Amino acid sequence: EADIYQTPRYLVIGTGKKITLECSQTMGHDKMYWYQQDPGMELHLIHYSYGVNSTEKGDLSSESTVSRIRTEHFPLTLESARPSHTSQYLCASRPNGIVSGELGANVLTFGAGSRLTVL
Amino acid sequence: AQTVTQSQPEMSVQEAETVTLSCTYDTSENNYYLFWYKQPPSRQMILVIRQEAYKQQNATENRFSVNFQKAAKSFSLKISDSQLGDTAMYFCAFMKSQLSGGTYKYIFGTGTRLKVLA
Questions:
Q1: Helix, strand, coil % in chain A, rounded to nearest 5
Q2: What is the DSSP letter of B28?
Q3: Are B104 and A90 in contact (CB < 8 Å)?
Q4: Which of B35, B108, B112 best probes binding to A when mutated, by most A CB atoms within 10 angstroms?
Q5: Are B28 and B3 a contacting pair, CB within 8 Å?
Q6: Alpha-carbon torsion, ordered A101, A102, A107, A112, to 10 deg
Q7: Which residue of chain A comes nearest to B36, CA vs CA?
Q8: How confident is the prediction along chain B (118 residues), in pLDDT tens digits per residue?
Q9: Contact call for A40 and B111, based on CB within 8 A
Q10: For a FRET experiment, which of A113, B24, B34, B92 has its CA 20 to 30 Å from that of B50?
């Protein structure tokens, strides 16, 4: 059972609307990530965070923004949605341990995804 | 920069048969981690298996095993006794060891869509 939760799972909205995709994890992970994935395609990192008040842009340029005010919460916001933002957004987190061999170290846990359609 | 290549966009296998998915990567690092993730249709991405580069022994998890060839930078996934539930997209991923410094970013391949046929 997943310990990382994304809402909404599906969202259809009109152009120009502001939307926030929620991501919460209950595992106490410091490191969290947002990926953008078109159906059946590769994942593109758009944002990541190493902890509270730490956010960085990923490899794929995105008009979205993120915040990390609490360890467990990493929401993604689009101020003005456009059809080009139509995609699936995956949130992920991973443990803090860096010791090789530590159980679960470096393994990403993914949320179920938020599929966004902008008309 | 690191890259991960999955050269098989789609594959199919008969139920109960064995299939191998290929993955190659490019890096100048010596310490890193490799992963296979599975993404079933409309379902959550989950870890299948992982390999630490310093370990020579190939990782195994039940019906899933890898063939890790560090010198060749190859990391293939073998699925034995394929089951219908194995139908999914499979992503190979690379992560540099934090002990090497730098960021904690994963590099994903483009994925292989595997279909298990009844």
A1: 5, 50, 50
A2: S
A3: no
A4: B108
A5: no
A6: 150
A7: A107
A8: 788 999 999 999 999 999 999 999 999 888 889 999 999 987 889 999 999 888 889 999 999 999 999 999 999 999 999 999 999 999 999 988 665 555 667 899 999 999 999 9
A9: yes
A10: A113
